[in-house]
Hints:
Layout: H1 2-29, H2 50-63, E1 67-71, H3 72-77, E2 91-95, H4 101-110, E3 114-118, E4 127-129, E5 133-135, H5 145-154, E6 158-159, E7 162-163, E8 170-174, H6 177-186, E9 193-198, H7 203-213, E10 217-225, H8 234-245, E11 248-256, H9 259-264, H10 269-285, H11 298-306, H12 309-316, E12 324-331
Parallel strand pairs: 1-11, 2-3, 2-9, 3-8, 9-10
Antiparallel strand pairs: 4-5, 6-7, 10-12, 11-12
Keywords: Membrane, Transmembrane, Transmembrane helix
InterPro entries: SAM-dependent_MTases_sf, TylF_MeTrfase
Pfam families: Methyltransf_24
Amino acid sequence: MAVGVVAVAPMTLVVVGVAAVLLVCGRMVYRGRDRFIPNLYSRDISVYEAAYRTFIADSLTSLRDRKIPGHTLLWEASRLPAPSRDTADELLLDLGVWIGWSTRLTAEASGRRVYGFDTFTGLVEDWQIDDHVVINSGTFSLAEPLARQLMRDTGVALEDGVPSALGRDVQFVKGSTYDTLAPFLAARPDVPIRLFHMDLDTYESCLHALETCKDRFVEGSILVFDEYLVTNGEMRAFYEFQEKYGLEWRYRAWGLEAMEMNVRMVRSPVKRLWYYTDWISRYWLRGDGRFVWQFVDKRFWRFWLGAPAGDIAFMLGAAGQRKSVSLEITGLGRLGE
């Protein structure tokens, strides 16, 4: 038995070594580099017009210097100026909140009131995630089993059809942002938006929210996009918005999206461990993480042959769920006219 083990070890090293050499050689000749971005490695960006392809490439170059280990939203909320007379009227908006933990934790991190918007009955339109999958309208409803289970395990109850505040300084607004956002802002004339968190997912909802809020953005407004690296969703909406108005801005951070916050708030340590174990295993075995090991999937080759080494380490370090990006408005362009 010992002889067999000794014989297998060198063979394993040889196989690993050959695979490593082939990988390095493959990366040197692969022509798909820069055609696919870190999120899922699914969308071939060559299908887009030249200006948008340049925007995507420039964005990734900038974001690679702005990676953070934690949640982008909470990173930004914790860096807002402390509440004062000068900041009392500023708005912190969380658009797309599901069971509400992103809103509550943002209020905790910032020390300010946060307004959370959601239908609480799911997406208002289908969400096409690049060329990979469609998530149907109605998904992410609080009536779904996962939402009900997480609400129980994190102590969230429904009060008048919206999640409870649980002692945090939050206010939830129920309904589609197509219907609720403009009246909400009209009731608070001239109040600027300091923090704008976009988690409505779809291109249409994101662009509508940006247009509705455009007169409330000021220099220093922070915009956080939870699913920014979906190139035909939030990124596309922001690209068109900033192009239309000649907005000046700079990227600030690239980190974890908001979903993991919900698991972090599970009260029982045993249940919390179960959630993490279940979600991580589902992700790697049946979810988007399959592209790391499922060599029959074209995303496997796009990832291992085309991704910069830094992206590989960054994405693998968080089960691939690093899609959240923040930016700061530095000049209003035509918004100030």
